[in-house]
Design goal:
mainly alpha, flat, 121 residues, 0% strand
């Protein structure tokens, strides 16, 4: 009986550990999504402030944001071989950052959640 009790306790603890892992992943994805929305709102606020002071709209592309962070995007703009993937990458990088940051973050969070759910038993 004791062995049976210990095995049950061990199983319960491992399930609890999995639940904790999923909770941390969920919190990470939520934090990532909220922070990207706040960054996008900050960019939009800066654009509106610039518009009201100068009278000119300053477009901020996704490329500008990623370059500001320090991500090297030369391989997208100057690929070794011209492929459709490079063209689609260039198209995505030219879209407005205020729309693309939250969209890409929600997409990334969905992919992470999908992979973590597929790992459940």
């Amino acid at each position: 009986m004791r062995k049976h009790g210990k095995i049950e306790v061990g199983i319960r603890e491992s399930r609890k550990g999995k639940k904790d892992r999923f909770r941390y992943i969920f919190e990470f994805c939520t934090t990532l999504a909220v922070s990207s929305v706040l960054v996008a709102l900050g960019i939009l606020g800066w654009q509106l402030y610039t518009l009201s002071t100068t009278g000119a709209w300053q477009a901020v592309r996704l490329f500008d944001v990623l370059s500001f962070i320090g991500i090297d995007l030369q391989s997208v703009y100057f690929p070794r071989e011209t492929t459709d993937l490079a063209r689609y990458g260039q198209l995505l990088l030219e879209l407005p950052a205020t729309l693309m940051l939250p969209l890409l973050t929600f997409l990334l969070s969905g992919i992470i959640a999908l992979f973590t759910r597929s790992g459940r038993n």
